[in-house]
Amino acid sequence: MQRGIVDLWAIEGGGGRRAGIYNLSKIVTAHHPDAHGFARRIHIRYRGDETLENGDRLLITIRCAFILDACCRGVDGTHVGGFVPQLHDPEFEQFRKERPQRGCAEPPGHCGPWTSGVGIAGTTFESWFFVRREEEPPSRRRDTHWDEQES
């Protein structure tokens, strides 16, 4: 993986200062590459010394046109509607959080499980998550709703 293909950004949120945006230091590695160097997953590990606060949003962008498959095509990495399920892997089981299905019950245009991609090589993967530390006092938690003003 070349530098510049993966970005990891922090967008300040929560109860304090908001709207600061900064790039996080990271290391990107292939997860168990095969004998030819191809991998089905990558690991993105934060390596900076910034302290992430409750309510901060981490934005992940992967420019899949610069990641080639075995046939030299750019990877189709579009994350369709947030419905793509987490991979079933014992290594990541501690992070699994089941969410109720929302909106569309089936993927548009076909039957079967939601998958990433739209059938076009070289798309961009983009996703995000919010930081929440478990030690935050319950009285300060605001996870029952979200306010566009807070974003």
What does this molecule look like?
The protein is globular. It is built from no helices and 6 strands. With 151 residues, it is an all-beta fold. The strands form 2 sheets. It has a 4-stranded antiparallel sheet with strand order 2-1-5-6, with no helix packed on it. A two-stranded antiparallel sheet has the order 3-4.
Structural descriptors:
151 residues; mainly beta; 4-stranded antiparallel β-sheet; globular
Produce the secondary structure layout.
Blueprint: E1 6-11, E2 21-23, E3 26-30, E4 42-46, E5 57-63, E6 124-130
Antiparallel strand pairs: 1-2, 1-5, 3-4, 5-6
SSE topology string = EEEEEE
What is the structural class?
Answer: mainly beta
Number of strands: 6
Percent strand: 15-25%
Distance between termini?
A: 31 Å
> Can you summarize the main beta sheet?
4 strands, antiparallel
Number of helices: 0
Proportion of helical residues: under 10%
Instruction: Look at the structure and give the mean pLDDT.
Output: 79
Radius of gyration: 17 Å
The main sheet orders its strands as 2-1-5-6
Q: Based on Cα principal axes, name the global outline.
A: globular
Low-confidence segments: none
Outline:
By secondary structure, the protein is an all-beta fold. The protein has strands at about 5-10, 20-25, 25-30, 40-45, 55-65, 125-130. Helix content is about 0%, strand content about 20%.
